[in-house]
Amino acid sequence: MVMNPLNEKNSIVLASESPRRRRLLEQAQIAFSVVPSGTDEDAIRGPEPERHAQILAAAKAEAVAKLYPHAWVIGADSIVVIDGRILNKPESAAVAGQMLRRLSGRTHRVITGYSIWCESRGHRHSNVCITEVTFKELTEDEINWYTQTPEPRDKAGGYAIQGIAAFMVKSINGSYTNVVGLPMCEIVGHLTQHGAIRHGTGQTRSPATADAGGKC
Ligand SMILES: Cc1cn([C@H]2C[C@H](O)[C@@H](COP(=O)(O)OP(=O)(O)OP(=O)(O)O)O2)c(=O)[nH]c1=O
Q1: Cα distance between residue 29 and residue 173, in whole Å
Q2: 77 catalytic, yes or no?
Q3: Considering the entire predicted model, what is its pTM?
Q4: Which of 33, 125, 143, 144 is the most core-located residue (most Cβ within 10 A)?
């Protein structure tokens, strides 16, 4: 019989196609597999931004957790919120420009909903992490130049703090990695607390060597 390491006890699965989220888990030296959830984000709408991000994160985690019930599955959704409006990923350079004009010289919130599921343990945890980001005043030249780069395309709010857009950011209040796509302090803390990983001990488990430990 072929063993499926994705579905072993205490394996970690990232339910995301975001390369940023993948990189954040890699940086933390967590062994994990990637299974994009295929969730249709346009089909889901929460009542207000925090709930919206949380519901989407849970939908992503749930879709993959059903396929791999023994794994710890992480789903997340990041949105930019200003004036009570959600700025998702811009569909064009022109829309990215409109978003950046709105963000220019002001403070907005980046809300990442995150969800950690382990079906076989009945473990379903969802929460949000909020970071305030303050932009400098952007000139039209800066906006036009930036939106001609590929960077805004697949990023909530039309910018990537970890890339060229770092020059736009005057200050942030809260988790930096939350803006990039995953609140690492909370995610690693939760997985550690529930025995899914032994982070910080030099014994971060790989899916292939996972044992049956851990609690819900
Ligand atoms: C604000 C901001 C967002 N982002 C990214 C993180 C997310 O990938 C993206 C928000 O879109 P999401 O819908 O949260 O994620 P995704 O579609 O990229 O991946 P998946 O749904 O499969 O998990 O914006 C940055 O990389 N840097 C930033 O500064």
Answers
A1: 26
A2: yes
A3: 0.90
A4: 143
